[in-house]
C-alpha cells in the first residue's frame, strides 16, 4: 500500500534550521505532494506544495524561508526550513494528492504520521 514516512523533526532555537524528509513507498513521487502543519488551535494548514512538474508554491508565512523539493530516484520529498521561529512549532505532515483523470485533487489525500518541530525562543 501507499505509505509516507516523515522524519527530521526536532527541537531547535529561533533562527535555526531543519530539513524534513518524507519517504514515499508504493508510488512514484511524480505526483502532487505537499507539506502541511498543525498546531494547537487552528486546523491543518498548507506549508508548501509541489506539483507533478516540480513547480513549488509556498504559504505566505514561510515564503523565502522554506524550500520544498523531491527526488524521483529516492522517492523522497524534502522540506528545508531556515530562519525558524516559534510560530513554526507544529506537527508537520507530508501528503500526496489523488490523481483524477490526470489532475491532482486534494480530496482523499494520503497522509504520513507526522514529525514534530519545536522552535524555542
Describe the structure in your own words.
This protein has 121 residues and is mainly beta. 0% of the residues lie in helices and 58% in strands. It contains no helices and 11 strands. The strands form 2 sheets. Strands 2, 4, 5, 6, 9, 10 and 11 form a 7-stranded mixed beta sheet that branches. The chain has a 4-stranded antiparallel beta sheet with strand order 1-3-8-7, with no helix packed on it. The model has no long low-confidence stretch (mean pLDDT 94).
> DSSP helix count?
0
Looking at the structure, what is the overall shape?
globular
Rg calc:
14 Å
Ends distance: 40 Å
As residue ranges, the low-confidence spans are none
Keywords:
single chain, 121 residues, mainly beta, seven-stranded mixed sheet, 11 strands, globular
Helices and strands in order, then pairings?
Layout lengths: L2 E5 L2 E4 L4 E8 L7 E6 L6 E6 L5 E3 L7 E6 L4 E6 L8 E11 L2 E9 L3 E6 L1
Parallel strand pairs: 2-11
Antiparallel strand pairs: 1-3, 3-8, 4-5, 4-9, 5-6, 7-8, 9-10, 9-11
Quick rundown:
The chain is mostly beta strands and 121 residues long.
Amino acid at each position: 500500500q501507499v505509505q509516507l514516512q516523515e522524519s527530521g523533526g526536532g527541537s531547535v532555537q529561533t533562527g535555526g534550521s531543519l530539513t524534513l524528509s518524507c519517504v514515499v513507498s508504493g508510488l512514484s513521487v511524480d505526483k502532487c505532494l505537499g507539506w502541511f502543519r498543525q498546531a494547537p488551535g487552528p486546523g491543518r494548514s498548507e506549508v508548501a506544495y509541489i506539483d507533478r512538474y516540480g513547480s513549488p508554491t509556498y504559504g505566505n508565512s514561510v515564503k523565502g524561508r522554506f524550500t520544498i523539493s523531491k527526488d524521483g530516484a529516492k522517492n523522497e520529498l524534502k522540506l528545508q526550513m531556515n530562519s525558524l521561529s516559534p510560530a513554526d512549532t507544529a506537527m508537520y505532515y507530508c501528503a500526496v494528492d489523488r490523481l483524477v483523470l490526470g489532475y491532482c485533487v486534494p480530496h482523499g489525500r494520503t497522509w504520513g504520521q507526522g514529525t514534530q518541530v519545536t522552535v524555542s525562543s
